[in-house]
Amino acid sequence: MKSVRNLGSYPAAMSIAADDILEFHAARLLLLFRLCGTKDRIDGLTKMAKLDFFVRYPQFFSRVSAHLRRDDTAAPGVIESSMVRHHYGPWDKRYYHVLAYLEGTGLLEVTKTGSAFQFELTPQGRRLADSLKEKDAFKPLANQMKVVKQELGTKSGSVLKKLIYQVFAKEVADKTRGEVIT
Hints:
Layout: H1 22-36, E1 41-43, H2 45-56, H3 58-69, E2 84-86, E3 89-91, H4 95-104, E4 108-113, E5 116-121, H5 123-134, H6 139-152, H7 157-167, H8 169-173
Antiparallel strand pairs: 1-5, 2-3, 4-5
Helix pairs in contact: 1-2, 1-4, 1-5, 1-6, 2-3, 2-7
């Protein structure tokens, strides 16, 4: 992953995907904590990753929403960036790097209670997330997050994980660890 600060050292002809930019993922997670969290906090890595999965894969969110309502009118969507099959379902190998970046820049406070992590925006993180959600480039993402929170925000990470395995056996559960979810 590359930081925007270091892109000036890359040759002009070298293509760089937004998916490879650290700040792109950091901005999305800031919005996730602000818009999908409870009081700007998400308890647990599993819950954070599963909410992020449904934000990044809107077609999967539509299907799980339809499943919860027992409705078969799920709408297609566009995958924002890839995740892989991990021990506990969809996962992004960059989470640890991005979370450390957010904590190191003072935008996120990470605490551990027992074996569970809690992620809470700092006042500076809240201000930045509020600024991002007002920008046109982030409005579709922010709107998706609001819908995800409304539908799934009260469920625990464990419940979300089980729901993903139940509804998406072929797309997620049957994949080998490390395989990209499509």
